[in-house]
Design goal:
80 residues, alpha+beta, Alpha-Beta Plaits
């Protein structure tokens, strides 16, 4: 999990559970897709099946981030 000091300044943080990841390539693919979304400042995808995203809430939101993440493949995301 990201430490508070690791977050970009003025960023909101959202966490998701991720189902369907089987390897590091899955995590990389998800991260690369989510990073493309305007307003996303940092993406951490963990092999324990979690994802943390720091974002500018003036440019995007948790629902838009999840919608973007689902385009990465056959993964299921749930906000936690």
């Amino acid at each position: 999990m990201a430490a508070a000091g690791d977050l970009p300044k003025d960023a909101s943080l959202v966490r998701y559970s991720v189902e369907g990841m089987t390897c590091g390539s899955c995590a990389l693919k998800i991260r690369e897709v989510v990073e493309q979304l305007k307003g996303v400042k940092m993406v951490l995808v963990h092999m324990d099946g979690t994802m943390e995203v720091a974002f500018d809430d003036k440019l995007t939101n948790a629902d838009a981030i999840m919608a973007s993440a689902t385009t990465a493949g056959e993964y299921k995301f749930k906000k936690v």
